[in-house]
Structure formats: structure tokens, C-alpha cells
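Chapter summary example: a protein plus adenosine monophosphate.
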Amino acid sequence: MRVLGLETTCDETAAAVVELKASGGGLILSNEIYSQTAEHAPFGGVVPELAARAHVEHLDVLMDRAVTGAGLRYGDLDAIAAAAGPGLIGGVMIGLTMGKTVALATGKPFIAVNHLEAHALTARMTDNVRFHYLLLLVSGGHTQLIAVKGVGDHLRLGTTIDDAVGEAFDKVGKLLGLPYPGGPHVERKALTGDPQRFALPRPMLGRPNADFSLSGLKTAVRLTVERAGPLTQTDVADLCASFQAAVVDVIADRTRAALKAFREKVGAPEALVVAGGVAANESIRRGLQRLAQAAGLKLVTPSPALCTDNGAMIAWTGIERLRLGLVDDFAFAPRPRWPLDPDAERALNGKA
Ligand code: AMP
Ligand code: MG
């Protein structure tokens, strides 16, 4: 079984072909990606219109390269999968339309993939992780703790009520005059900083639910910067280290709370899986490793290239769905909002 996957929900244009291995995991035959980071950098964030235009310009070439790079022709594919949301509407429309078009032209099944589910299922492609497991998704746009129980069967245990973790890193980077995106720069500066110099808050620590809140922490950094006046290199390094230490504490505490909820609501998890661009952060990985060890759990962190947005995770989710007979028709509309667990979303918005 070989599936083409297209990803265009944010600022990565990506296409990949993945094959189902006899052992159960996925073999990545090709994985093409064009990261638009440099195009958005002058604006300090993703500009939706620029992103959509870049997807249009790059997707067809990447897709051809993914298919030929896999040693295949379009007719050899078993299905075409495209991310149908959640994400920026312009980009989603482009990937979805492209996926449907290729499916129509080749007569192959079409599969609309939830981008969040693709992150959630990546560990099954790379490490053959069995259901049920706890996923911590920490990226520029998402911060969620999810019990992954099966394909299309997810229980959201926690989410952020304001900023995503990556977003908080990026905003702190901006405050400190670091280049965009700030996350990796904050981590680098933190290496030489004193994590105890600034006493920053750890929002939500000890709360019984597993939700996050990061805007207060970001505001505390801003107030510290304003109070400090002109910053020296040492100040910047110490602020980065202090901020990162607070984030590590918050993530560990919230994940611990989610593990407790997981055990109560689902049972014993098979693993703790971490995904999203922020998973590249070494301090956060170490914090989670300590937590997993204490809980007697295996920590699975796909490689950074598979933690951030990519086409292989979309193709793999296509495989997971195709083998269950879950295909979609061409009427499937883009979904800029598409929660993995609609019940949890309604509860959070006070509509339950
Ligand atoms: P994604 O949203 O999955 O494409 O990942 C991008 C986000 O991850 C951005 O907010 C980055 O700043 C963040 N990020 C990437 N590397 C790191 C790192 N080493 N430490 C913290 N955040 C990071
Ligand atoms: Mg991205």
C-alpha cells in the first residue's frame, strides 16, 4: 500500500509518499518539503496570503518530485491524501484541491486528513507504537495533550486557553530582539544563561485539569524587559534561560496531570509521544524524559523533520484510514477549524 500525502495548512509546502511495511510501520519513500520561513521572517509571523501564494507556486513541483523520487508513477499509488485542516484557509484549499484533482485524474481514492491526527499518528509510522498512548503536541499553532485511542478516536485531555508553546517562544524571541522564529534562538541563548536569575510564573501549575495558559508568562517576560531598561547580552541569555525553565516546568506538570487523567479515563498508556516543532527543544525533551522515566513509560519523539509539518505524516494517516476503508468524496470542504475531539472543544467554549 502506497499513499501520496500533501501538506499545506501553514507555512510548509510538503509532499511525500509512504509505503505500509509488512511489520506494520511506514517506510518513507520520499519526503519533499519547502519551508516558507524565510518569506515570512520579515513580518515576524506567518502571513496567510503569502503562504497561500507560496503553496500554489511550489506544490506541483514538490508533488512530482515526491512521486518520481519514490520511483513511482501516479498510477502506481493506492490513494491520495491531503490535509483538509485545521489551518489557514488559503493553504488548505490549495492542498485539498490538488489532492482531489490528482485522485480524480488517476481514479484513485481520496482521503481528507486532519493535520492534528497526522501529528498524532506519526509515532505509529516511525516506531510502530500501539494504541492507546498519550500525545503531547507542541508547535507554533497548537498545544494539546491527547489520548490517542485509535484512528479517528481521540480524547483531548488538555489544551492551551491562550498562546501555543511555540508562539510563546516566538513572542519572547521578538521581545528580546532575536530573529524569527524565536524558538531555536531562545534555546541557543538559554544555553549560557542563568535559569534562576528571573523568578517567572508557572501558570496552571498543580491544577487538576491538563490545560495550559502561557500569556501570563509571556507578559511577565515583557514586564521584566520593560523594567530592566537596555538589556546586556547576559540579561538576554538569563531571560531566555529563565523563560525556558518555566516552560519546562509547566509542560512537565501539565503532562503529569494528563497522564493521571489518561489512567483514570482510558487505562495504562503504551507510551508518551511528543510531536510539533517545539519538540526539537533539548531542555523540554530532557524534562519529558525525566517524567516518562518516573512514570515507567517509553518516550517516543520522532525526528525533528517528522515532528514539524511534513507530507509523510499526511501520507501515513492516509494509509491508516485507507486500510480501514475510510475514504472521502470530492465534496469534502476545507476545515480551517477541525478539533480532534469536538466534545472537548464544546466543553472548553462553555457550550456543553
Ligand atoms: P511547527 O509549528 O510545528 O511548524 O513548529 C514551529 C514552532 O516550533 C515555532 O514556534 C518555533 O519557534 C518552535 N521551535 C522550533 N524549534 C524550537 C526549539 N528548539 N525550542 C523551542 N521552540 C522551537
Ligand atoms: Mg510550520
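Key point: DSSP finds twelve helices and ten strands in the chain.
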